[in-house]
From TrEMBL:
Function: Hydrolysis of 6-phosphogluconolactone to 6-phosphogluconate.
Family: Belongs to the glucosamine/galactosamine-6-phosphate isomerase family. 6-phosphogluconolactonase subfamily.
Single GO biological process annotation from the record: carbohydrate metabolic process
Residue ranges of domain Glucosamine/galactosamine-6-phosphate isomerase in the record: 11-241
Assigned EC number: 3.1.1.31
UniProt protein name: 6-phosphogluconolactonase
Length: 252
């Protein structure tokens, strides 16, 4: 488990710009070393802003594998889907091969069977890991060794769709789970688990706002992941919190 690094910026725009530059450097390094790079995108204001910022960067998109940390289990054309927001912000504007974009199943693909959809996405992860020779064993499954897993965070410390005091945040065996009762709507979601997040080489948080300050302090300080899920997300090689001054205001 890596110790967190905290980087503080004047505002959200500055933290997003810095993270985008850092991500380009990681992409270039990974492609030079292994021929490809694996990135887990995140939604939310900062996550979508970062995705949009990547549109202006020089990146070899033909050698990028794109994943998602969670998804709202709604119809495929529902604008709440993270995948559609990522398309609008980034994926429709860059030449990333469609077969290298690993989206979660939509609710209308499996007649609303979230457990089946979770197993399908877990298999997609395992198949990619096997194909690339880049897998990490997690409980009963296999996930790619993501180069960067990007994360937003809620004011109560939730990441992906892992909320405090839920079965999902306690899960240690499965790599992907179905959430039926998310306290934040919509209630049905699919999410990577904490062990799957921890398989990433780097975990980067993008957090801004005073309403996130307490969760930031608890996450950086090593609180219980059951109370503050953000505290359970660590990269195998690096954990970085990109914060604006308001989000960092309760750090010692």
């Amino acid at each position: 488990m890596t110790e967190p690094t905290v980087r503080t910026f004047d505002d959200a725009a500055a933290l997003v710009a810095a993270a985008a530059d850092d991500l380009v450097a990681v992409i270039e390094q990974a492609q030079a070393e292994r021929g490809f790079v694996s990135i887990v995108l995140t939604g939310g204001t900062n996550g979508n802003a970062l995705s949009a910022a990547l549109r202006g960067k020089v990146i070899d998109w033909s050698r990028v594998d794109v994943f998602f940390g969670d998804e709202r289990f709604v119809a495929g054309d529902d604008p709440d889907r993270n995948a559609l927001q990522a398309q609008d912000a980034l994926l429709d504007h860059v030449p990333v091969p469609s077969e290298r974009v690993y989206t979660f199943p939509a609710a209308d693909e499996f007649s609303g069977d979230g457990e089946l959809a979770a197993r399908v996405y877990a298999k997609r992860l395992a198949d990619n890991a096997a194909e690339r020779g880049n897998g990490v064993a997690v409980g009963g499954g296999l996930v790619p060794r993501f180069d960067v897993h990007l994360l937003g965070m809620g004011g109560e410390g939730h990441i992906n769709s892992l909320f405090p005091h839920t079965d999902a945040v306690r899960e240690q065996d499965a790599t992907v789970v179905s959430v039926r009762d998310s306290p934040k709507p919509p209630p049905r979601r699919l999410t990577l688990t904490l062990p799957a997040v921890g398989a990433a080489r780097r975990v980067w948080f993008l957090v801004s706002g005073t309403d996130k300050a307490e969760a930031v302090a608890e996450g950086v300080g090593g609180a219980s992941p059951e109370d503050w899920p953000c505290a359970g997300a660590h990269g195998a090689e690096q954990t970085v919190w990109y914060l604006d001054g308001a989000a960092a205001s309760r750090l010692g």
